[in-house]
Each structure stands twice: as structure tokens, then as C-alpha cells.
Specification:
Elements: H1 10-16, E1 18-19, E2 27-29, E3 34-38, E4 42-43, H2 47-50, E5 62-66, E6 73-78, E7 94-100, E8 103-110, E9 116-121, E10 127-132, E11 139-142, E12 149-151, E13 162-164, E14 178-180, E15 185-192, E16 195-199, E17 216-219, H3 227-234, H4 240-243, E18 253-260, E19 265-271, E20 283-286, E21 290-294, E22 299-304, E23 310-315, E24 325-329, E25 332-338, H5 355-358, E26 365-368, H6 396-409, H7 429-433, H8 435-441, H9 458-492
Antiparallel strand pairs: 1-4, 2-3, 3-5, 5-6, 7-8, 8-9, 9-10, 11-12, 13-16, 14-15, 15-18, 16-17, 18-19, 20-21, 21-22, 22-23, 24-25, 25-26
Helix pairs in contact: 6-9, 8-9
The structure holds heme C (HEC).
């Protein structure tokens, strides 16, 4: 079996000149016989490269209503014309019957990445409301006459690095939101975090540009918004006035929000993270006035759907990213949820507060019922020490070149920290020997590590290998130094 491997390559993407991928759930109304499809962001992000003449770039970041018999477009609504912020409109759409201004409407609701909650008439595509459900600063509001967002000066990062809310992870992404027809509320897992958007080549060399990465980058900060904390990111003390200070309060939050789609306001909210990116899961709501959500820290939490009161909190020891589901067998109702850390989270190191940082990341299906047993927890992580690196006679130039190629082809999946995919500073003697078989000829393709011989030469693979050996040596030496220090300290006492 051969697994086709396509890697993200900015140069290739520049040729694609598009984007608009449909990567989340669609919706279908059998009565109206309409299929609703949400489309993705522009790619590459830089519209000047993608579409030098500018324009709205229809049908990127749009909701399309299609007649499935003919394939013809019946109506469309574009949430983010001329997208440059990775603001997809693929997020799952919910159909409901709502009374708006005294009129019963068949609506379609979406909370796309751009931070505005859209209520559309799903027969005609008429925009009924578009209010921000999360903090946004890239646009001030949506003009109800034109349906277009009013982009702010802050939203224009071509003039200099800007801190923008929401981030490219969206104020809401694939984690399913849920609508409860009894409370008439939508429960949204909100990702209230910003990005520094930077036009890399024009950043005046001020920003630490990782060669091989995107030329237009959105970098998610954590920690504090002050020049000193941000220095490592920018390479020098950044000019905060130009980036602009964010809203007061924590920079990075995740919250579960109960949103009233008619009154367009938050009815209750629960903070689910404490100032870090927790990768919380999707939401389930039931007729019994309950809302269920799993979290990055391993807690499975049950709330009252009308008030948001926390009713139950069960620690599972596993990161939960998926949405729960419910079913009943012989009169007993069960709630099931899949656990495990992964997805796009693997491009960054695991947060120390995540369950996956302390316990083995086991992919499990947990099933709950009233008066069920304790949840068994996975064992604690026990990371082996770094293996000693093999000898290498690579030159500093080869190592540097390998670093760039690593960033281009490997860093989307492999980070230098514990994660779902192997930390390549920890590879064994055997893997070192088989490095090119694995990387170029697909020896591990059946495990998800595809072959790269369509984009890398033997020499490229050697340079990447040289870079990894040098990183392994650094980590190994650091660990040994620390161990020596501990030993010396122990012998003194
Ligand atoms: C699309 C994701 C993805 C990309 C991109 C990727 N890898 Fe992997 N890689 C994996 C996965 C998944 C595994 C684990 C396979 C397994 O369990 O053996 C893996 C395993 C490996 C291993 C074996 C590690 C070990 O200790 O067993 C090596 C070596 C490796 N990758 C090198 C690379 C290099 C070099 C690149 C860039 C040219 C790269 N990978 C790009 C997903 C990826």
C-alpha cells in the first residue's frame, strides 16, 4: 500500500492561486432541496500574490446554496471578501426555525472563523443578522445593507505587524457547536486568541523569519503582551504602538459561550482555559437541558443548558478534542466521546496544562451513563532520555540548509517536544540508519509517514538528517549537563 504524501509548499501554493477548500460538514434541507456548502480561506494568504488585481475573490470564505439535482448555484453569501486572514467559512451550519422581528424564518446559522455569527434566510440567502460572538478587531462590524465587513486599519497587516483577533484558528473552527431548540441558544466553543499577522519580507527584518515558512505569517502569542516577553519572537524589542495593544484581560482564552441568535448576545459563558491554548472539544446539547463538552485538560464537563451552571466535572486523564454524542439502548441513555490529542494541534508543542503533557496520549472512546464507574486514566508519561547522537561530519552550511528544508517539509508534523508524531531529536540508531528509506522511499508510509522523493533529493534528505543530528546533539548535551549538575549537587550534601 502506498500513501500519497503532499506537503505544504508555499512556492507550489503560489501556483495554485486559490484556496476555498470545503473541509468541514455541509448541510442539506430536503424541503427546500438545497445543499449548503461552506468554503475555505484564500491560499496563499497574501492576496497580492494570489490575486494581484485584488477584488472579492468569489467564492472564497462563502456559504453557497446549491441545487443538488442540477449543481446550479441558487444563492451565495460571502463572509470575508478578499480574505487575507485565513478566515474560512467552512464551519458547520445549523438549520433552525426562529422568530425574527415577529416573523417565522427558516434560518441557516454559522459561526465562521472571522468572529461574526451569521443568521441567513436559508431559502433566499438574505442576511438577517451578523454580530460578533467573540472579540474582533480586524473589522468593526458587518454592514447590514451590503453584507460586507467594515475592515479596520488594524486589520491591514501589510503596513506593519498587527495583533489581530480572532486568530487563524478562528474564533470558532471545526469543533461542532450545538443548537438547543428548547433554550433557543447556540453553544459555541470559542477560541478567543489572537495572531500577530506579519508581512514577512516587509517586516524590515525585525521579525524572526523562519526560512522556509509562510511569507505571510500568523503567529499565535502566549504569555504577556509586553516588549520584553515578545522579544524572542521578533528578534528585537518590538514597537508595541504599531502592533497595538490588545483588549484588556488575558491575551489567550478559550470559552464556551451560549449565544442567543435572535437577540444576538451572549446569555452565559464559561471560561474553559486559563490563559493558554487548550484545544477544547466540540459541544453536545440534549433535551434534558444539558450541555456536554470535553476539554484539553482532560475534564469532561456537564452544564445546565439554560443557565450555564456547572453540574458535573469528570477528570478523564485524556485530552478531549472531539464532540460528544448520545444514544440509548434498552431505555438507558449513554453519552460517548472520543479522546486523544492531535489534529492541527501537532504543529505546536503540547501545552504543559494539557492532559497529553502528563499522561500517555491514548485514543479511547469513553462512554458515560448515570451512576457509571470511575474513568480509568492512561498511565503517566515517562519520556526516555535523549539517545546519544551518531557521529556527523556535516558542515555548518549543510546543517543550515537542512534546517530550511526541515521547516519547509517536515515542521508541519514534527515539533521538537513530546507530541503525537515522533520528536526527531529522539530517533534511535536503527532509524538513523534507515533515515532515507523512511523519508524518501516510504518505509513507514503505512504508519502515516509518507515518502518525499517527489520533492526532496538524496542530498536534501542528507542535509535534513544533518540538521536533525545536530539538534539531537544539542538536546543530548543539555540533558547531560543538567544531569551532571544534579549529581554534583547531590554529592555535596
Ligand atoms: C504529514 C505529516 C508528516 C510530515 C510532513 C512528515 N512526517 Fe515524518 N512522520 C510522520 C508520522 C505520523 C510518523 C510516525 C510513523 C511511525 O509511527 O512510525 C513519522 C515518522 C518519522 C520518522 C521515524 C521516527 C521514529 O523515531 O520512528 C522519521 C525519521 C521522519 N518521520 C522524518 C521526517 C522528515 C525528515 C520529514 C520531512 C521531510 C517528515 N518526517 C515529514 C508524519 C509526518
Amino acid at each position: 500500500m502506498e500513501v500519497a504524501q503532499k506537503t505544504w509548499d508555499p512556492q507550489r501554493a503560489a501556483f495554485v492561486k486559490g484556496g476555498g477548500t470545503v473541509w468541514d460538514g455541509m448541510a442539506y434541507d430536503p424541503e427546500l432541496n438545497l445543499l449548503y456548502v461552506g468554503t475555505g480561506n484564500g491560499a496563499p494568504y497574501d492576496q497580492r500574490k494570489r490575486s494581484p488585481a485584488g477584488g472579492d475573490n468569489l467564492y472564497l470564505s462563502s456559504i453557497l446554496a446549491i441545487n443538488p439535482d442540477t449543481g446550479r448555484l441558487v444563492w451565495h453569501y460571502q463572509t470575508t471578501p478578499g480574505d487575507i486572514w485565513d478566515f474560512t467559512a467552512v464551519q458547520k451550519m445549523i438549520q433552525a426555525d426562529l422568530v425574527i422581528n415577529g416573523r417565522q424564518r427558516k434560518v441557516l446559522m454559522q459561526a465562521p472563523k472571522n468572529g461574526f455569527f451569521y443568521v441567513l434566510d436559508r431559502a433566499t440567502g438574505e442576511l438577517l443578522s451578523a454580530k460578533n460572538y467573540s472579540y474582533v478587531n480586524w473589522a468593526s462590524h458587518v454592514d447590514m445593507k451590503t453584507g460586507r465587513p467594515a475592515v479596520t486599519k488594524q486589520g491591514d497587516y501589510y503596513t506593519g505587524p498587527k495583533l489581530l483577533y480572532p486568530s487563524w484558528s478562528g474564533a470558532h473552527s471545526w469543533q461542532p457547536m450545538a443548537f438547543n431548540p428548547k433554550t433557543n441558544l447556540v453553544y459555541i466553543p470559542v477560541i478567543d486568541i489572537p495572531n500577530f499577522w506579519v508581512d514577512m519580507p516587509n517586516s524590515g527584518g525585525k521579525l524572526k523569519f523562519v526560512n522556509g515558512f509562510f511569507t505571510t505569517a500568523g503567529i499565535t502569542p502566549d504569555g504577556a503582551f509586553d516588549a520584553k516577553t515578545l522579544k524572542p519572537l521578533f528578534g528585537t524589542l518590538p514597537d508595541l504602538k504599531q502592533i497595538k495593544a490588545p483588549r484588556p484581560g488575558a491575551l489567550v482564552r478559550e470559552v464556551l459561550r451560549a449565544w442567543d441568535p435572535v437577540k444576538q448576545k451572549v446569555v452565559w459563558e464559561q471560561e474553559t482555559s486559563n490563559g493558554y491554548r487548550s484545544y477544547d472539544g466540540g459541544v453536545l446539547t440534549t433535551a434534558g437541558n444539558l450541555v456536554f463538552q470535553g476539554r484539553g485538560d482532560g475534564d469532561f464537563v456537564v452544564y445546565a443548558a439554560d443557565t450555564g451552571k456547572q453540574l458535573k466535572r469528570i477528570n478523564t486523564g485524556s485530552t478531549i478534542m472531539a464532540a460528544p454524542m448520545t444514544y440509548s439502548v434498552n431505555g438507558t441513555q449513554y453519552v460517548a466521546v472520543q479522546t486523544g490529542y492531535g489534529g492541527t494541534a501537532i504543529v505546536t508543542p503540547i501545552s504543559p496544562k494539557s492532559a497529553a503533557a502528563t499522561r500517555v496520549n491514548e485514543n479511547r472512546i469513553l462512554v458515560f451513563k448515570l451512576d457509571g464507574d470511575e474513568v480509568p486514566k492512561p498511565p503517566l508519561r515517562n519520556d526516555e532520555p535523549f539517545p546519544s547522537p551518531p557521529k556527523s561530519d556535516a558542515t555548518p552550511e549543510q546543517i543550515k540548509s537542512g534546517e530550511i528544508k526541515f521547516n519547509q517539509h517536515c515542521a508541519q508534523c514534527h515539533v521538537f517536544s513530546p507530541n503525537v508524531t515522533p520528536d526527531l531529536r529522539r530517533i534511535s540508531e536503527g532509524v538513523h540508519q534507515n533515515f532515507k528509506e523512511i523519508v524518501l522511499r516510504g518505509q513507514r508510509a503505512f504508519m502515516g509517514m509518507g515518502r518525499f522523493d517527489d520533492v526532496l533529493t538524496e542530498n536534501d534528505a542528507d542535509e535534513i538528517h544533518a540538521y536533525l543530528i545536530s539538534e539531537q546533539a544539542n538536546a543530548y548535551n543539555l540533558e547531560h549537563k543538567q544531569e551532571e549538575k544534579l549529581k554534583q549537587r547531590a554529592s555535596k550534601h
